[in-house]
What does this fold into?
Amino acid sequence: MHLYRPKSIRRLLLIGFVLVVVPLMLALIHAMYSVDQLVAQGQRALFATMRATHGSEQLADAITDMERNARQYQVLGDPALLEVYQENHQKFLDTAERLEALNLSDIQRERLEMIIKVEDGVNEVIVNFPYEAPEMASAVEGFSSLARDARKMLFDNRKLVEREVEWLDAN
It folds into this structure.
């Protein structure tokens, strides 16, 4: 086997410099790529949790609005209030649908499904019974459990955001 032997010290220095710099440059490029991937992954996770938190806030607001309208309708019996309730009910359904499309944890998904199920039962009574019916009073009281569960979901989402931010800080 024949080894290359440079004829000058300048060539020897140049070859030594290349042999030292090339691996360092490759390591630097790999590190930059890894950091970019980590930042992109962190941003995606943080944005997803922020969307879930925003959706949970909207869900809680819709429940509050529906409860207010249902109570007003129960007291006054004005059909216009029932129409406003139904508009807020549609906002609730739209928000719940957007939340279902997100990548929620199993606990969040179960809580959301339970909120939707309970709200569906409450809505059935409000829409199908007269405002002075005793069923209406018990249905309106169902909003307190809905609001409680929506606040729990919002709290869970905020905790998830905090964990994602801590994970980003750690990495």
Summary: The helical segments are 9-76, 79-101, 106-128, 134-170. The CA atoms of residues 49 and 161 lie 6 Å apart. The mean pLDDT is 87.
